[in-house]
């Protein structure tokens, strides 16, 4: 639990920023695996389990 709290504190202070290479929907899981296996990613590959919500402006 201490590690998670340390990461939270670092993120809040701006000392840690997650790098997201690409985000895929769950139905694109094969493409996500291909991206990881390609060894060309520069950060994390995220697979979303829920659809993004459209937020009205």
Descriptive tags:
57 residues; 2 helices
Summarize the structure.
This protein is α+β, with helices and mostly antiparallel strands.
Explained architecture:
- It is built from two helices and two strands.
- 37% of the residues lie in helices and 19% in strands.
- With 57 residues, the chain is α+β, with helices and mostly antiparallel strands.
- It has a two-stranded parallel ribbon with strand order 1-2.
- The protein starts with a helix and ends in a 9-residue tail after the last strand.
- The mean pLDDT is 89.
Q: What is the number of helical segments per DSSP (H or I, 4+ residues)?
A: 2
- SSE series: HEHE
Structural class: alpha+beta
Average pLDDT taken over every residue: 89
β-strand percent reads 15-25%
Low-confidence stretches: none
**Total beta strand runs:** 2
The neighbouring-strand order within the major sheet is 1-2
Quick one: biggest sheet?
Answer: 2 strands, parallel
Radius of gyration: 15 Å
Shape: extended
Q: How far is it from the N-terminal to the C-terminal residue, by CA?
A: 37 Å
The helix fraction, in percent, is 25-40%
Write the layout of secondary structure elements.
Layout: H1 2-13, E1 20-25, H2 29-37, E2 44-48
Parallel strand pairs: 1-2
């Amino acid at each position: 639990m201490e590690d998670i709290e340390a990461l939270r504190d670092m993120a809040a202070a701006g000392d840690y920023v997650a790098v997201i290479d690409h985000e895929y929907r769950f139905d694109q899981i094969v493409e996500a695996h291909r991206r990881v296996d390609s060894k060309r990613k520069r950060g994390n590959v995220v697979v979303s389990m829920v659809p993004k919500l459209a937020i009205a402006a």
